[in-house]
Structure formats: structure tokens, C-alpha cells
Amino acid sequence: MKLYDFPQAPNPRRVNIFIAEKGIEIERVIVDFAAGEHRQDAYRAMNPACDVPMLETDKGIYISQIRGITRYLEEIYPDTPLLGRDATEKGLVEMWEHLAFMNGILAVAGVLRNTSKGFVDRALVGPHGYPQSTELATRGATQIQNFFTDFDQQLANNQYVAGDAYSMADITTLVTCDFAKWVKAEIPKECTHLRAWHAKVSERAAVKANP
Q: CA-CA 20 to 30 A from 48: which of 33, 93, 127, 130?
């Protein structure tokens, strides 16, 4: 297998932490984002979404999107389950991981891509160009704060985001909290449960190996 990677970015970091938690050895191919390699014909032929990460299986099948990659890896490496251990837990992990992505990762990305000069006409990830919007950046900033308070409330009564077991929901939530620093947003001091959880999961070996 090969992972087409850009480890500095939040979405590849989610997969890299997932892989490290499972102890999987996968060859990396670094995609040069600064040079726009992800939008060039050779990469687009493998991944029309023009994003990273992307997994190439041993059979030469290309899988992009975090859920696709992690689902595939969970199926072939079931030890150390990170997508849930039974039907209920799988549903809860899926729910909370999706909420962290929709209300967290995308909110931060909305601020970053709609304010940074480096993303002029590139306000959304993918092969198509979209103009920046100050209104979407403002909305994203509000969403980030709501993300912090909502997940603080969830962690008030749960050891981990989706219950009593560390999962992909924790990985995405952790990466969101760290990604938020890119737009100068920090976990508020009053979000004590989220701050304590963040300090705890940041000490995991897989997280330290993928800062």
C-alpha cells in the first residue's frame, strides 16, 4: 500500500494518527501542495477530487476521503478498533466523528480558506475554483466557538468523545482543536472538560508521532 500524504495538513494528520494507533506500516508518497501537484493531470487521474490523503491499495485501487480510507484500513486491520466495537458504538463513533468534521474541521477551513491570500479563488478543497467570502469566514469563526462548547458538554459525561473508548471521533476532534490554532482560535478556558480531554489525548504516542 501507499499513502499519498501531506503531513502538515489536518486531514492527512487524521489518517496518520489512525494508522499509528493501529501500528500499520505504509509507504508514504509526499504530494507537493505548494507546487499544486494535487491538481496536476497525473494526480488527478488517480484522484479526481484532487485532495489528500489518498490510499493506493496493493491491488492498485485508489481510495480518497478520510472515511473511505479509515473504513478500508479498519476492515483489513481489525485489531485496535477505532470505528467502534459493536453496532451501537459504531453508530456513535460515526455520529460524533461526522459532527466534529462538519462543525469543526470545516468551520476552521472556512475561516482559513476565506481569509488567506494563499487561497484566493480556492475557497474550497477540490478541482474547482470558488471565490472567497468574508461572510462565510465570519460564520466559520462563530461555528468554531460553538464547536468548542458543544464538545465540552459532550465530554462532561464521557471519558472520550463517543463514549468510554478512544476512537476516530477523538482523532478528528483533537485535530480540529489543533487546526483551530491556525486561525488563532483556542479552546476557551471555561471549556474545562474539553481542555482536560485534549491534554490527555495529546499525550498518546500516535499523536506525539504526528504533531
A: 93
Full 3-state SS string of 109-128: HHHHHHHCHHHCCECCCCCC
2-76 CATH choice from 3.40.30.10, 1.10.8.420, 3.30.750.24, 3.20.20.70? 3.40.30.10
Which helix (H) or strand (E) covers residue 3, if one does? strand 2-5
User: Cα dist. 141→86, 148, 151, 195 in Å?
Assistant: 36, 11, 16, 19
* pTM (predicted TM-score): 0.94
Please tell me whether residue 175 adopts helix, strand or coil conformation.
helix
The string of pLDDT tens digits covering residues 133-145 is 999 999 999 999 9
CA nearest 10: which of 160, 125, 164? 125
Asked whether the predicted pLDDT for residue 122 surpasses 90, the reply is no
3-class SS at 6? coil
Asked whether the bond before 188 is cis by omega within 30 degrees of 0, the reply is no
E strands along 33-166, which residues? Answer: 54-56, 62-64
CB 176 within 8 A of CB 100: yes
Q: Which residues, including other chains, have CB under 8 Å from residue 47's CB and lie 6 or more apart?
A: 4, 38, 54, 62, 64
